[in-house]
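Before the break, one more example. Copy the sequence into your notebook; we will annotate it together after we see the structure.
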Amino acid sequence: MARVDVLKITKMNDKLFLRFSGKLTLYDVPSCEEMITRLDFNQFKSIVIDLENLTYLDTIGSIFLNQLKKDIKKTKNSLNILVKNKDIIDTLQLTDKSYPPIKNKATQSALSIFAKFGKSSYELYKGFFSFIAFFGRLFSAKFFLLQSMKNIRYKEIAFEIKESGINALWIIALTNFLIGLVVAYQSAYQLKVYGANIFIVDMLGISIMRELAPLVTAIVIAGRSGSSFTAQIGAMKITQELDAMKTMGFDPCLFLVMPRIIALMVVLPLLIFVADMMGILGGMIVANIDLNISTTLFLERFNEVVSAKHFFLGLFKGPFFAFLIASIGIYRGFHVKNDTQSIGFSTTKSVVASIFAVIVCDAVFSIIFTKLGF
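Here is what the structure looks like once it is written out:
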C-alpha cells in the first residue's frame, strides 16, 4: 500500500515544488500519479522536482520519475531537479536508457487505432487462407489414403476411437439424460395446462433425436476431444516432435491428422445414437412421474408419431460435426507458438471456434432439411 507522505506538493506563486521523500517503489507510484494528474503544469513557470530526501528508488519508481520529467519538458516550463544521492542518479540514468517511455492509452492517436484495426484485419485474412490451405492438405491426404488403403493407420484410429468415443461415453450419456429430464420437466407444466400430456412424446422424440442430441453431443466432444487434439499437437510442436517426423520423412498429416479425423467421424454418430436413447429415457421418466404416462403408452405413441427420418437426420449430422471439431482442433494445434502459454490460448480458441462452427453447421442443415421437406 502506498504511503501518503512519499510526495508533498507545494505551490509558491508561479513555482511548483514536487518533494519526494523516503522510498519510492512500485506500491507508491499509483498514488503519486493520481496526485500529479490533478495538477495543471501550464499554470506554473517553474517546476522543481526535489529528490534530496529520497532514500530508495526501485525500477518502477525510476521509470515514473523519468516519464514525469519528460511530461514536464513538453510544457516548456523551467524544470529543475534536485538530487544528491548517487544511487538515485544511477538508477534514473539506467532506466532512462533501458526502458521505453510509458504510453498513455488516453492519448493514443487515431493512427494507432487504424493501425491496430489493419493488423487485426490482416491477421484475419491470413488466418482464413491458412485454414483453407489446411483443408486442402486434408483433402489431398484423404485422396491419397483412398488410393492406397495400406497407408491407413488402423491402430492409431482404433486408439483415437477409444479415447474420443468410448472414454466419452459416460459423460455423453449423463449429459443427454439430464437434457431429456430438463426438457420434459419444463414442457410438462405447459402441456398439463392444456390437457395435452401425450404430446410430450412428440416433442421429445423429434427435438431430441433431430436437434438436441446431435448438438449437445457435438458441443461436449468439442470441449473434450477438440481441446485434447489442440493440446496434443501443440505439445508435439513445442517439443519439436513434428520437426523430427518431417526430418525422418513422415507426413504429420497422414500420421497425426487423418487418424484423429477418421476416428471422430466414425465414433460421433455412435455417440449420437447413445445420446438419443438416454435423452428419450430421461424424458420418459419425467412423463411417467409427472404426467402419469406409462412406459408402454409412451413407447406406443413414440412408434406412431416419431418417424425414422428424424433419427437418421440426427445421425447424418454426426460426421460433419466431427470433421469440423477435429480439423479445427488440429489446425489450432499446428499454430501453437513455441511457448507453453500459447497452448492455453490455442485450446481456448479451438473450443470456441469448434462450438461456433457446429452451431452454424446445424443451422445450415436445419434450413436445408426444412426446405427439402424432411
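The chain has twelve helices and four strands. The chain has three domains: 7-102, 114-151, 153-372. Try to locate both features in your own notes.
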